[in-house]
Predict the structure.
Amino acid sequence: MPSQTFFQCIRNTSMLFLYLLLASRFVFSQEPIDSWKSSFDQRTRCIDFASFEIRFPFTASGASPTLKAEVPSLDDLEIALQAWGANKAIENMAMVVLMENDALRLQQLNALYGLYKADVQNHFLASTLPRSFVWLPALLNQFNHAHSDASQKSGLWSNQVENAIDRGLNVNANLDERYIPDKSTEAAVATLVKLQRRFPDSPHRVLVAYVKGMAFATRWTGKPGYDAALDEWLALYKVISRMMVNVELEDRSLDWIQLMGEWKPVPCDGNVRRSDLCRQLSMTEAELQQLIPWWKGSSIGCEELNSRNVRLPLRVAGTSPVTQPTPEVAKTEAVLQTIAEEEAYSEGIKCLLHEVKEGDTLWNISKRYPGTTPEWIAEINEIKDYIRIGQVLCIPRIP
């Protein structure tokens, strides 16, 4: 059977379950996939997505995902990447990362794509690029418009400074338009089209040139075996690009529109300083950077904020100045508050106390306490947006 029909031949839930069962028998330690997994899990804990997950929880169904009866044909990039499916151990590892825990990461990845889908499709439909290039941000930075790395690549498409400026984006001490998804995508598509003219018959070389540079792509053999880390990265790309179109996944774009419609404008009168805004809204600098990443200066005018329709999750959209307690005091107050809530529920609900650790989400907490659901935990603890490390939750004690 030709390798390109591998995913196309998986047509029903039982076959997919069997495949995953076999895949789970392997033990892997390859760095790129492990690194992507860790970075992706960190992405899902960012304030924007954490707010989404509270509003639209990913519930555990206990069933394997369903694959489409009619799957799209491979585009030119996917055909070029088929050689990186020969190592079934690596391909299996990539599959397991996406599909474990009832395909939680695949569902989360699909939800993140929903946040940027309109901007991405708007620019790609007007280009001649193979459609599977749209998954490049998933591999580069786990679909994070606030991404920035040590090499000064930033934004949803990890745009280089010089390429962004060449494409007309503003990049200065106060404003960096690489962090605006529409602008980032526009610049990335222009760069990819330029690389496509350089490598007209090698879409996989276009992909590698965007990630590792023109010089590397020119001397690269274009075949597995030249660079082990790159081989594994391309194998992961191949799996993600197929699974995102082969599996029946709900379009989450409207969910994001609904959620952001519930968010509130930034409280602003004249000008606002970063430090004052963080203090006023009890928000960390990291949270501010995630929500308004294009703002780079120490202060900004309200007119600029309003022109970009900046809105914040409900937790940080208040208007009253807040004095932040020390972490120790905050933790003590949280425990006392939880105990008070437990006493209030003493007639009906008994609580187990759970302190939120790094990596916790309402979904995986509920999995540890059979009989509970993310929605139930959120309701009992009056969680309106997302949970914090160190927060103490009341978990319903099931008789």
